[in-house]
Amino acid sequence: MKKGLATLLVWLGAFSLLALVALQVYWVHNTYLLKEQSFADHIQKALHQTIDELENWDAVKRQSENLIMTSDSVQTAQWADDFGSWIEVDIFPSVEERIDTALVDSLLQKNIWKEGVKTPFYYAIVREDGMVFWKNQDMESEESHSYQAKLFPNDPVSKTFFLRLIFPETSKYLIGSMWKMLIISGLLLTGLMWLFFYSFLTIHRQRKLSELKSDFINNMTHELKTPIATISLACEVLQDKDVQKSENSRERYIKMITEENTRLGMLVENVLRTSLFEQGQMKMKVQVISLHEVVQSVLRSFDLQVKNRRAVVIEDYLAKNDQLEGDVLHITNLVFNLFDNALKYSLEMPEIQITTKEEEGFVVLEVADNGIGISKENQKRIFEKLYRVPTGNIHNVKGYGLGLSYVMGVVLKHKGQIQVESELKKGTKFIVKLPRKYEAVN
Question: Which of 125, 143, 177 is the last residue of a domain?
Answer without folding.
Answer: 177
